[in-house]
Amino acid sequence: MPHTDLLDRADGIVAALITPYRADGSIDVDTLRTHTASLVAAGIDGLYVCGSTGDGVTLDEDDRVLCTRTAVEAADGEVPVIAHVGTNATALTLRLAERSAQAGAAAVSSILPAIPLTPAEVRDYFLEVVRSSPAPFIAYNFPARAGVGLADDLLAELAAEENLHGLKNTSRDVFEMSGFTRLRGGKFRVWNGHDEVLYAGLSVGACGAIGSTFNVFPRLYQDLLRSFRAGDHGTALASQRRIEELVRVLAHHGVMPSLRALLAARGLDMGPSRRPQRDLDAAARQRLLADVAALELPA
C-alpha cells in the first residue's frame, strides 16, 4: 500500500507512543513491539513515534530510528507510523527524516528546535525541512515546549507546499486552531494535540488527534470521535467530560510517570522514565491506581 494511502488512515485517533526502556536505559524493543501491536489490535488509527511523549529529543539518532523501525514492523502495514525527527540542527533533522523514511515511516514530523530563533529562522527551518523531506511532512506546533508558536502567516505559507501533509497542534488555543483548519479551503489536516480539549478541537475542524493518554485508554477517545462523527454530540460531550476527569488525575500525579505506572499495572512493564524525568514511588502508584479506578473508564 502506498504511503499516501496508508497515511490517510491517520485521520483519527493516533497514539503518541511511550518509549519503553530496560534498566540500563536501552530501548526495550520487545516491549515496544508488544505495546504497538496491542494498540493496533485495539483499533488505533496511527502511531506517532519519538515525539514529546516518546522522549524523542533525549534519544540518540540510532535509537530513534530503532523505535521507528520497531513500530513499523509491529504495525505490519495496518496503520501508518509517523516519526518525529525534530532536533536542534536542520541537517540532523533531515538526516533523521531520511533514515526514518527508509525504516518505513509513512510521514515525518518536527517540532521547532529548542533554541532561540527569530521569525525568519523559524520560517527557514520549516521551509527547508518540508521541501527536503523524503516523506510527507507534518509540522508540530507546541508553543509551551518550543517557546514560540507557528504564526498564522507562516503556516499559510507552509500550507502551499505540496509535501506538507498537515499539522500536529498541541495548544489549547482553539480559536487559533480554527484558523489553521481553514487553510487549503478548509481541507488542511490538523491533529488536536492536547488530549483534554479533543471535543473542542474536533468542533473547529480537527481531523483527529495525536495524544499520549491514548496509550492507556484508546477506547475513550475512539468513542468520542465515533460519536462526534455520527452527530451524537451529547454522547461525545459525555466522553469529553470523562477525558477531562482522567487528565486532571494524571496531571495531579504526573502524566508521563502515571502512564508508565498504569501500563505496568496491566502487566506491560515500560521500564524506568528517561532521566531527568522521575518515576512514582510505591505509595504514589497506589494512590494513582485508586484514583483512576474510581473513574471507571473503558480500557
Please mark out the parts with pLDDT under 50 across 5 or more consecutive residues, or reply none.
none
Helices and strands: which structural class? alpha/beta
End-to-end gap: 30 Å
Taken in chain order, the helices and strands follow as: HEHEHEHEHEHHEHHEHEHHHH
- Helicity level: 40-55%
CATH superfamily: Aldolase class I
Number of DSSP strands? 8
Strand order of the largest sheet: 1-2-3-4-5-6-7-8
Briefly, what CATH class? Alpha Beta
Average predicted confidence as pLDDT:
95
List keywords for this structure.
49% helix, eight-stranded parallel β-barrel, 12% strand, 14 helices, 299 residues, alpha/beta, TIM Barrel
Report on the architecture of this protein.
- With 299 residues, this protein is an alpha/beta fold.
- The protein has a single domain (3-230), classed as Alpha-Beta Barrel (TIM Barrel).
- It is 49% helix and 12% strand.
- Strand 4, helix 5 (119-132) and strand 5 form a beta-alpha-beta unit.
- The longest helix is centred in the C-terminal third of the chain and has 21 residues, at 233-253.
